[in-house]
């Protein structure tokens, strides 16, 4: 689970979150401690982000950055003309929930952002995310008979919703494809 969470810093695949969710489900279902699932996922994710930051900082080119990196990392000028970084901790926290998350540690390392300015909000966001996943998975594992009863009671409604979503997706795809021709 820690490896799956760590891999999310390289490639943001939802399968890593499903691995953590299922691990918490199994831990609660078979009455193991699910706190270990949380710690493995959180440390794996935040630790890999710290490693990627360190590698980018260590191996960054000391010459002026390329135009793309300079554009991504550009700061604003303060009143006295000094460059101010836009890496506000709240912005890093919010961006940690977006698909750009794997870029954060690398860009921060390339831009020379301080370690703590990046890692504290990033680790807090990872902790909140994995705590939520573990909570949902553990709740489902502890109440598995109730979950099965709910699926049995509402299976027809789940089928209707699924078929409806598939139909809407296919029609949307067909219309977009037809419009581009």
Could you walk me through the main structural features you see in this protein, from its secondary elements to its overall organization?
The protein has 181 residues and is mainly α. It has two domains: 2-142, no CATH class; 143-181. It is built from nine helices and two strands. The protein has a two-stranded antiparallel sheet with strand order 1-2. The longest helix has 28 residues, at 115-142.
Name the features.
181 residues, mainly alpha, 2 domains, two-stranded antiparallel sheet, 2 strands, 73% helix, flat
- How many domains make up the coordinates? 2
- What is the SS-derived class? mainly alpha
Termini separation: 45 Å
Low-confidence stretches: none
Helix content: over 70%
Along the chain, the helix and strand elements come as HHHHEEHHHHH
Extended strand count: 2
What is the 3D form?
Answer: flat
Question: For the residues shown, what is the average pLDDT?
Answer: 82
Q: How large is the radius of gyration?
A: 21 Å
How much β-strand is present in the residues? under 5%
In this structure, how is the largest beta sheet organized? 2 strands, antiparallel
Q: Given the structure, what is the number of helices? A: 9
Order of strands, widest sheet? 1-2
Outline:
Helices cover 73% and strands 2% of the residues. It is mostly helical and 181 residues long. It has a two-stranded antiparallel sheet with strand order 1-2.
Q: What is the topological layout?
A:
Elements lengths: L1 H6 L6 H16 L5 H24 L8 H7 L2 E2 L5 E2 L4 H7 L7 H9 L3 H28 L1 H10 L1 H26 L1
Antiparallel strand pairs: 1-2
């Amino acid at each position: 689970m820690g490896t799956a969470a760590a891999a999310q810093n390289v490639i943001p695949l939802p399968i890593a979150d499903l691995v953590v969710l299922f691990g918490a489900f199994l831990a609660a279902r078979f009455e193991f401690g699910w706190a270990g699932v949380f710690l493995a996922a959180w440390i794996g994710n935040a630790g890999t982000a710290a490693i990627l930051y360190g590698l980018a900082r260590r191996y960054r080119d000391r010459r002026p950055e390329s135009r793309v990196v300079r554009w991504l990392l550009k700061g604003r000028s303060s009143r006295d003309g000094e460059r101010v970084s836009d890496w506000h901790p709240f912005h890093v926290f919010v961006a940690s929930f977006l698909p750009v998350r794997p870029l954060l540690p690398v860009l921060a390392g390339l831009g020379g952002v301080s370690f703590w300015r990046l890692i504290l909000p990033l680790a807090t966001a990872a902790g909140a995310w994995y705590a939520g996943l573990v909570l949902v998975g553990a709740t489902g594992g502890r109440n598995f008979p109730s979950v099965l009863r709910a699926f049995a009671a509402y299976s027809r409604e789940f089928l209707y919703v699924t078929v409806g979503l598939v139909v809407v997706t296919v029609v949307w795809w067909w219309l977009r494809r037809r419009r581009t021709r």
